Amino acid sequence: MAFRVRGGGGNASSGMGVSEHSVNTFQELQRKKVHRYVVFKIDEKKKEVVVEKTGGPAESYDDFTESLPENDCRYAVYDFDFVTSENCQKSKIFFVAWLALKSSLTVNTEFTSLRDNIAAQPDDFPYFSLKSPSVSPIRSKMLYATSKDRFRRELQGIHYEIQATDPTEMDLEVLRERAN
């Protein structure tokens, strides 16, 4: 008899495990149609992927896209229902690696007039300073990118995968094209 360890057993590159609750919530979406979508995030303290939010069966694709953060990464699964050209009702499950991060790079410019620069000390010349947030967006992207494959393998029954860095890459039309 073989046992698969979840939770604390992270992969070598990121060290992230997958919570049992995450897998169970996905199975509820897949088998019981309890959820339209599930959004997952990496809990760095627990070192595992956990459920952040679920959407009920009546929620729309817009509800799903609005549940993804504008400036952070997430994983998500979406149960896409559609009707084929033969008028058959179908359902496909999409895995979305949401790696959208708005640039948090700000440029601070302080220029003084040329007259002031002539007499100024070298340290007083115009400068550009780069300010970064306390949590680096690059670090978040790297963490999600290195953990994606292992997490994706835990979710048996995914039909399609989308990696999106902005909303246009996961537009509803993209899902329709992939599903048909």
TrEMBL record:
It comes from the Eukaryota. InterPro entries: ADF-H, ADF-H/Gelsolin-like_dom_sf, ADF/Cofilin. GO terms for molecular function: actin binding. One of its GO terms (cellular component) is actin cytoskeleton. Residues 15-180 form the ADF-H domain. GO terms for biological process: actin filament depolymerization. Keywords: Actin-binding. Belongs to the actin-binding proteins ADF family. This is ADF-H domain-containing protein. The lineage of its organism: Eukaryota, Viridiplantae, Streptophyta, Embryophyta, Tracheophyta.
